[in-house]
Amino acid sequence: MCSNYEAVSRADRLLSFFGVVRQDQEAPILAWPTSLAPFIRLAEDGSGNRRVDDGAFGLLPGFAKEIAYGRKTYNARTETVASLPSFRSAWKKGQRCIIPAEGIFEPNWETGKAVRWRIQQPGEVPMGIAGIYEHWTSPEGEKMFSFAMLTVNADGHPVMSRFHRPEDEKRMVVILDPAEYDRWLSCPVTEAPSFFKQWMGQLDAFPAPLPPRAKKAKPAEPPAAEPDAPTDDLF
To answer: At the fourth CATH level, which superfamily is domain 5-228?
Structure first.
């Protein structure tokens, strides 16, 4: 499970590592559910080329009435992505994407309380996370993209099994081999489950507390609530 990650948003890194052109040259985005962040999909012109768009982190199916729905749909379990109403339309239509991440953040409970850790690839090489995306139109007529990360069981994984509460199932995002980016985006839906596996490449993990908030002249607003945990029962 991943509810917080650092998105790759710099144009040079998106071009170098993912082969897509982005006009905006902005600093990495610390994304939480409902944040806007880049995701990569197939171009709709039939060229087979990749393109990058911005979308909300948290998939918004056609029946969603507000962006806040994405607070429970930012992760899609691979075991149920084809059957749950929130995800099955995107999955059936083959709307698969790559979510570029400099690193992801997970809670480590080895001290008896949650400590925010960062997980990344060695050498600060960004990771491409397998996802699905949707086109969404709000009740007011606003159109936007949204996406969710796919997750698999992480039991036995040397790094990812260290995270989340001891009593919770261990989950991890599906990290793609860069050599298979194009196949993930373009293969038939029936072949896509072959990507549902633990990433066995090397990962670095270390404590990474949130940076302190900047002081404000006026009284500070209360902190935002933690994102809701994805719950299959609701969808």
So the answer is: SOS response associated peptidase-like (3.90.1680.10)
Average pLDDT over residues 67-75: 97
- Give the tokens for residue 174: 């599906």
Domain range annotation of the chain = 5-228
Number of helices and strands in the chain (H, E): 3, 12
CA-CA distances (angstroms) from residue 161 to 142, 170, 224? 40, 6, 28
pLDDT above 90: percentage of residues in the chain:
83
Model's pTM, two decimal places?
Answer: 0.90
DSSP state of 173: E
State both tokens at 50: 């990749």
Q: What is the pLDDT of residues 174-220, one digit of tens each?
A: 999 999 999 999 999 999 999 999 999 999 999 999 877 644 444 33
- Which residues in the chain belong to E strands, given as ranges? 5-7, 29-31, 36-42, 50-57, 75-77, 96-108, 115-120, 127-137, 143-153, 171-173, 175-176, 204-207
Task: Give me the pLDDT at residue 210, please.
Answer: 85
